[in-house]
Amino acid sequence: MTEETADVQQAIAASPTPAAEFADLSRRRQVEVFFSLPQTVQKSLLADMDVAQVRRFVRRLDPDEGADVLGLADEETRAEVLRRLDQDRREALSYLLEFDPETAAGLMHLDYVTVDVERSLADAARRVERFEARNDAVPTVFVVDDEEFVGELPGQALALADDESERLRDHVEETPVVTYDTPDTEVVDVFRRAPERSVAVLDDDGTILGVIYAGDLLRVVEEEASETLYEFTGVQEEESILDGPLAKVKYRYKWLIINLGTAFLAAGAVGVFEDTIAAFTLLAVYMPVVAGMGGNAGTQSMAVTVRGIALGQISLSTGSRAVSNEVVAGAANGFITGVLVAVIATVFNQSPLLGLVLGVSMVLNLVIAGFFGTAIPLVLDRIGKDPATSATIFITTATDVLGFFIFLGLARSVL
C-alpha cells in the first residue's frame, strides 16, 4: 500500500462525512481505496453514502465485487441500488447476494461458459466469443457431460488448435471442485493442495454455479493471518488501526479484565512470601526477570504447537513426544540463561546464594513453560476450543504463579 493510499484511508476513517472524502477520488482510486479499508470503515462509508453514490460505485464493478459492497450496505440501500441497476447486473448481483460471503459461493465469479464434452473446439471458441462480446471478459471454459462436470478446457487448447473440428474430450484437464457452501478457509486449502489456476463451484446436484481464481483468495489468506494474530493477542477481529478510541475500548476491555484477574492471582502468590521479600529486598528486583523469561518461553512453545495443530501435525493423543521435546529444550535454555543471570547476581550483588536461587529457578520455570506451552494448546484443541484464542492467558498464569512460588520458595529455604 502506498503512503498516499494510507493517508486517504485515514482521512476517510477520521472524517465526519466520509462519503464526501470518497467522492473526491477518481474512479480507479475509489476501487483501490475501498477494498483496502477495514470492514468497519467500509460499513461506515456506505452508511454515509446516498443511494445514487452507491449505485455509481457498484455499477462498474465486477459482479462479485459489487456483491461484496452491497453485502455491507443496509437492506434499504441494497434494495434501492438493485432496483436502479440494469436487468443483467441486477440479476447477477441478486444471485451472488443469496450466498454466504464467507463460503466458496461468496468468492466465486460468473465468468464461465459450459460446453458439452462431445462438442468441438470450434463450438467452444464460438461460446467464448459470444461471452466476451456480451461481458467484455474472457471466461473459463468448463466441460460437462450431460450437465455432469468433467473438467476445464485450457485456453491454450483453443489458441493452439490445429483442427477446430477436434472434440473437446481429448483436451479436458481435471479441475478441483468445491460445493457452494464450502467455507472460504477450506477453499484456500484446496488451492494449497492443488495449486491450480481455478476451482469450479458446484451446487449440491453437481450443477456449475461459478468459478474461483487463485487471486480471489488473497483477501482470505490475509484475513486468516490477521485473525490468528488478533486471537493470539486477545484483540477482536473487527478492530482495525483506523478505529477511534471508544471502539478500541469496546473491543479490548473484557480481555484486559480477565488479565487483571490472573494478575491478582500472581500477586497472591507473591503475597505468600511477603516476609521473605521484606527480609531480602533484592528478590523484588529479579522477580520480573524470572516471570518474564517464563512467559516468553511459554509463548514460543505455544506458537510452535498451535502451528502444528493448524497443519494437522500434532494432537493430544500424539503430543507426548512434542511435550517431552519442549521440556528438554526448556531445561537446556533455562540452564543457559540461568548461568548468565546467576553470574550477574553473583558479580553485581555479591551473593552467590542469590545467583544459585536465580539459576535453579530459571531452569525450573523454563521447564514449566515448555510443558504448559505445549500441553495447554493440545488440551484446548481436544475439547474444541481455539488454542490461539485461549491458551496465552493460561500459559502466562502458570509460568507467573509457579515461577514466583519456585523462586521465592527457594529463596526462603536458602537465603
Automatic annotation (TrEMBL):
Q: Where is the CBS domain?
A: 171-227
**Membrane-spanning regions, if any?**
255-273, 327-348, 354-380, 392-411
Read off the PANTHER family from this record: MAGNESIUM TRANSPORTER MGTE (PTHR41394), SLC41A_MGTE INTEGRAL MEMBRANE DOMAIN-CONTAINING PROTEIN (PTHR41394:SF5)
Protein family according to the UniProt entry: Belongs to the SLC41A transporter family.
> What's the protein name?
Magnesium transporter
Keywords assigned:
CBS domain, Magnesium, Membrane, Transmembrane, Transmembrane helix, Transport
| UniProt main location, coarse | membrane
Q: Which domain of life is it from?
A: Archaea
The question of whether 4Fe-4S is a record keyword is answered with no
- Where would you find this protein in the cell? Membrane
* Topology within the bilayer: Multi-pass membrane protein
Could you say which residues form the signal peptide? none
